[in-house]
């Protein structure tokens, strides 16, 4: 069955995915995946955002800020007052992140400390030179209550550092530790 595909003049360069759906007279559907590459410069850019430690879970979001699909790889590290608490090497995540897409994920941490001040850093990388880093500071307290942190820095394509937002204190607790701008995990102001 022949078909024609027309792209708008302002289509962003990169890989696009879709499908052709054909319906037969009896209502049966057939779906055929279609991938199209739009010519022009491609940009691989990835950020880690909204890192939060809560009990035995690290929550975070990955955002594809480029114009090409990415298959991210993740490494996790957590440091406490007395040293390294968690150090997981880079591993592939079971997802493909489409351009402009944001996905919220969790990383299990079943042996999280019951009482410690922790700095969690998540590093992601993907083909095309995309790299991202985000982290948060927090106090893990008895009962699993943690503190939420915003991304403490992000690396985009080409390795340029952007931002370095301070960690936001939890709205119900007094601030204790904050990230210095551009330096995830540095401590100041007690």
Description:
Helix content is 0%, strand content 51%. The model is unreliable at 143-190 (pLDDT under 50). The chain has a four-stranded antiparallel sheet with strand order 6-5-8-9, with no helix packed on it. A three-stranded antiparallel sheet has the order 3-4-7, with no helix packed on it. The termini are far apart. With 190 residues, the protein is mainly β.
Fraction of residues in H or I helices: under 10%
What's the oligomerization state? single chain
Ends distance:
69 Å
Shape: elongated
Largest sheet: 4 strands, antiparallel
Keywords for this entry:
elongated, mainly beta, single chain, four-stranded antiparallel beta sheet, disordered C terminus, three-stranded antiparallel beta sheet, 51% strand, 190 residues
Layout of helices and strands:
Blueprint: E1 14-23, E2 29-38, E3 46-54, E4 57-64, E5 73-80, E6 83-92, E7 102-108, E8 116-126, E9 130-140, E10 154-155, E11 161-162, E12 178-180, E13 183-188
Antiparallel strand pairs: 1-2, 3-4, 4-7, 5-6, 5-8, 8-9, 10-11, 12-13
Question: TL;DR?
Answer:
With 190 residues, the protein is an all-beta fold. It has no helices and 13 strands.
